[in-house]
Amino acid sequence: MSFLDPTILKGDHVVLEPLGHEHHDGLVEAVRDGELWKLWYTVIPTPEGMRAEIERRLGEQRAGTMLPFVTRRASTGEVLGMTTFCDADAASPRVEIGATWLARSAQGSAVNTEAKLLMLAHAFEAWGCIAVEFRTHWMNQQSRAAIARLGAKQDGILRSHKIMPDGTLRDTVVFSIIAAEWPTVRTHLQHRLTRSAG
């Protein structure tokens, strides 16, 4: 499979399908679950800004730097959020899993664990990536803990890395999983899924 070719990733708890404009209304409902755009340390679209965010991600897909997905609950088809492969480097090859958000009611469930398992398996097994990266705001303790629970290791902190929409500076924490670690991480995530309910 070619790098960043659109594909559907299916599991028992979650389905990741290529993002399209037809997902707009479902994504608006999902982002309202927890009013996620009000979190100051992350950038999540408002209901009014969802159409522009979908187009931005699709624009990056056309440019060959992103593969955006909508996240659905497998049992009901309910739209729960968005995630992407981004900052892709086909020559290395490596990719970041990021620009992810989930409706509040889906957070802490098997949905995120299985979505990451599906994406990591695709990156390492279909694309042959040498590394998969995760990045988050230093202040986003929930995200940092979730990334560490996946089995990713912290590489470092990029100080004053980005200017946030409110003008504050973001220190970006960088994590990664490398190809040699993938078999152990895969077993770990599979074990977590057997112990959790979707």
UniProtKB/TrEMBL annotation:
SUPFAM superfamilies tied to this protein: Acyl-CoA N-acyltransferases (Nat) (SSF55729)
Record key words, sorted: Transferase
One example GO MF annotation: acyltransferase activity, transferring groups other than amino-acyl groups
Residue ranges of domain N-acetyltransferase in the record: 14-153
Record-linked Gene3D superfamilies: 3.40.630.30
One Pfam family here: Acetyltransf_3
Coiled-coil blocks: none
PANTHER family on file: BLL6696 PROTEIN (PTHR43610), N-ACETYLTRANSFERASE DOMAIN-CONTAINING PROTEIN (PTHR43610:SF1)
Protein name, entry field: RimJ/RimL family protein N-acetyltransferase
Source organism: Kineococcus xinjiangensis
